[in-house]
Design brief:
alpha+beta, about 80 residues, globular, 5-stranded antiparallel sheet, about 40% strand
Length: about 80
C-alpha cells in the first residue's frame, strides 16, 4: 500500500539544484523534494508520497489525516519505517 502522509515543512534548502525540505511527520523527520509544490515554504503542510511533496494542505486537514493514519498504525509504519508518535 502506498500512502500520502501529511507533514509540516520545517526547513527548506537546495540540493543538487532541487528545492528540498526537512518535513516533520508528528516528530519523525524526513528529507522531501518540493519540486511538485513550489508554493510550499517553512510552516506549510504538505502531503508526501515516496519522498515528494505532492500537494499543500491546511493544518486542519493535515491533523485530521494524521489522526486517521494513526488508527492505521501498520500502514504508516510501512511507509515511514517507524510508527507515528
Amino acid at each position: 500500500m502506498c500512502l500520502g502522509i501529511p507533514g509540516r515543512v520545517e526547513e527548506v534548502h537546495e540540493d543538487a539544484g532541487l528545492r528540498m525540505a526537512t518535513v516533520s511527520f508528528g516528530g519523525i523527520r524526513r528529507e522531501v523534494c518540493l519540486s511538485c509544490t513550489p508554493e510550499a515554504d517553512v510552516g506549510s503542510y504538505v502531503i508526501v508520497h515516496v519522498g515528494f511533496a505532492i500537494t499543500v494542505v491546511d493544518e486542519g486537514e493535515a491533523r485530521r489525516t494524521l489522526d486517521v493514519l494513526r488508527a492505521m498504525a501498520g500502514a504508516v509504519e510501512g511507509e515511514l519505517g517507524e510508527p507515528l508518535p
